[in-house]
Amino acid sequence: MRIQLDMLSLSGLGRVRKLSVGVALAGALMVQGALAQTAGTDPVKGGVLVVARPADVVLWDPKFTNDNDSLWAQGQIFATLLQNSPDGKEIQPWLAESWEMSPDAKVFTFKLHDNAKFCDGTPITAADVKFSFERAMEPDSAISWQYPSSPQVEAIDDLTVKITLAKSNVAFASYLTIWGTHILSKAYVEKTGVEAQSTAPLGSGPFCLDSWEKGQQVVLKPNPGYWVAGQPYVDEVDMRVVQDDTARLLQLRSGEVDIALSIPLSQVASLTGVEGVTMGSVPIYGTAAVVPNVAKVPALADVNVRMAMSLAVDRQAMVDALLFGNGQPAQSPFYGPGILYWTPEFAIPYDLEKAKAAMAASAFPDGFAATLTIPGGDDLAAQTAVIFKDQMANLNIDVTISPVESGTWWEMWSGSEFELLYKLGTNDVIDPAENIPFDFWSKDEGGSDSAFSGYHNAEIVTISQAAEAELDTTKRAALYKDLQRLAMAESPQFYLFHPDTVWATRSNIGGFSVFPTKAHRFWDVWKVAE
User: Fold this and answer.
1) Which bin fits 46, alpha (ψ -120 to 50), beta or left (φ > 0)?
2) Distance (Å, whole) CA 348 – CA 493
3) 149 Rama sector, left if φ>0, alpha if ψ -120 to 50, beta otherwise
4) Considering only the top CATH level, what class is 15-25+61-202?
């Protein structure tokens, strides 16, 4: 399905309070929109919201974060200038009460709320925004790729921020909704130092970090300085780490927890029709993939080997066996059909005979051995790895599966200390430009060495940079089509499938859903007595 971006408002754009991306969405968002909350439609104040999540926060400093479990937690305590609407159709003001974009998409000006405060009661100012963005762009940052087109940040006055880009970037506003642009307190960071930001951050958003018992529980309390009247609704959020899937479900059924995240598709039936439980599901903007380290493993640097491996993956079999049909095979490097300009035209089919021929044409016709690193405790990763291992055996590729603790998994990945690595990546916005620097650019180009794999294709980088600056949607679509063609011909990653995500709540919980990005907002949630 082709989804087009409506950029009619781009030329002559004046004061902007929200930007529509004019998309026709698939049934994914219809599912979300149809979810009913039995807690009623009117929010109420008070109560403790207890959430069971499958993994802990790794760290709280957005500058060094690229794992989902950390960034989704950070999103509860830090604010961004802009935010996405739940359905991804609009970019809306958040910390910025209003904003402007120049007709050429080079200059962005933001006016901050005058009553926004950090968790220590100090005002959030333009100087904090400037500091946060410049800190995130430093050479040691893990999220500098979220700042394309060389932004120059100015604090015009206490409440006005001006960002000037070196070249037009129609996707730049989307970047300002994601975790790498979280606003930190300049005074607090300079006073406490770098290490404190990972364990004791000062929030700028709806909640404050009250306590963190590593591996066990995170407690959040409302930020008195949050500028949206009446929110958050609850008095406290307890995010409990419950890695065992069955345990999360049992705690939900008993009422011990109010929300259970990441329900395995294999266990959906056990919750269906359970009294007091409400379920929700939505296809995510996300791809399960295996990353080959082309810099570390000579065989994986051979494009014939990578193409052989990609041809040997039976993606539909994975969808059927692992997702029970609740998902679809990956057909593009983009993170699903809901992403702008996605096309299935260059999909790699399952063809074992062609896979063997490609392997025979490679420099490693007799196969090789490689270790596949996966995050421990992740059932989907483990089950995917088993099927992947079996399918690679058809090419005489001996895959050893190595589960490691999630923090170690991230350290190995970001340090390029792996051979093959399983990941489930998500798009935080509907624009494909977000993840392209991470997946395809080198660090020198502002990326992450192609998901830390060492892969590089200069033509893909050139095309993606041109697409960021292209204001004409037809031309932009053509550029992204060409990018997908080039990427699928070289298999820089083994794109596997796009899964649905399922969650469940007690029926007395209102206002909660998981977005197609897998993000969620606890400040929108309320709780009534059962």
Assistant:
1) left
2) 12
3) left
4) alpha beta
